[in-house]
């Protein structure tokens, strides 16, 4: 899948007249880096997690997706495979299960069980914050 994509990618050239352009070069240019990123995403990692593992932010991934149609197609395929991998991973990764806070916050699911799970999680966090605010702090000796 990605071997064809990587072999067909055009090589980035320098600026006009062969001069180096000012600014930072694109961070996602090495074929092995792209291959690893797509493999990580196919295995179930999010774009942010896969980019962090490659030592990047999400921005180069989205920039390359916007400018390279072949990479966009490969990324879409990898994201689909990653969703399937997360679903088959079971209850340890609950992003795709209804009635969880993760589904409500990450997938913006509007169903009643997901909204209720989000509300319960917010209530727990607020209660924990209030409890931390009410505990006496240790005085310096």
Note the run of SSEs as H and E.
HHHHHHH
Q: How many strands in all?
A: 0
Mean pLDDT: 78
- Anisotropy-based shape: extended
Strand content: under 5%
Structural class: mainly alpha
- First and last CA, distance: 64 Å
- The number of helices is 7
Cα-atom Rg, whole angstroms?
21 Å
- The low-confidence parts are 8-18
- Please outline the major beta sheet: none
Helix share of residues? 55-70%
Kindly describe this structure.
- With 141 residues, the protein is mainly alpha-helical.
- It has 7 helices and no strands.
- It has helices at 2-8, 31-42, 47-53, 59-67, 69-88, 101-106, 112-134.
- The termini are far apart.
- 14% of the residues are buried.
Summarize the helices and strands and which ones pair or pack.
Elements: H1 2-8, H2 31-42, H3 47-53, H4 59-67, H5 69-88, H6 101-106, H7 112-134
Helix pairs in contact: 1-2, 2-3, 2-5, 4-5
Which structural traits does this protein have?
60% helix; mainly alpha; 141 residues
Outline of the structure:
By secondary structure, the protein is mostly helical. It has helices at residues 2-8, 31-42, 47-53, 59-67, 69-88, 101-106, 112-134.
């Amino acid at each position: 899948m990605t071997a064809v994509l990587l072999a067909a990618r055009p090589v980035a050239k320098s600026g006009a007249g062969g001069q180096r352009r000012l600014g930072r070069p694109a961070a996602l240019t090495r074929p092995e880096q792209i291959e690893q990123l797509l493999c990580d995403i196919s295995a179930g990692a999010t774009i942010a997690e896969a980019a962090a593992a490659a030592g990047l932010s999400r921005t180069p991934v989205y920039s390359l997706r916007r400018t390279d149609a072949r990479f966009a197609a490969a990324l879409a395929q990898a994201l689909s495979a990653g969703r399937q991998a997360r679903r088959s991973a079971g209850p340890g990764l609950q992003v795709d299960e209804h009635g969880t806070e993760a589904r409500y916050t990450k997938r913006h699911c509007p169903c009643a069980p997901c909204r209720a799970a989000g509300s319960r999680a917010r209530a727990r966090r607020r209660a924990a914050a209030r409890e931390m605010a009410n505990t006496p702090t240790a005085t310096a000796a």
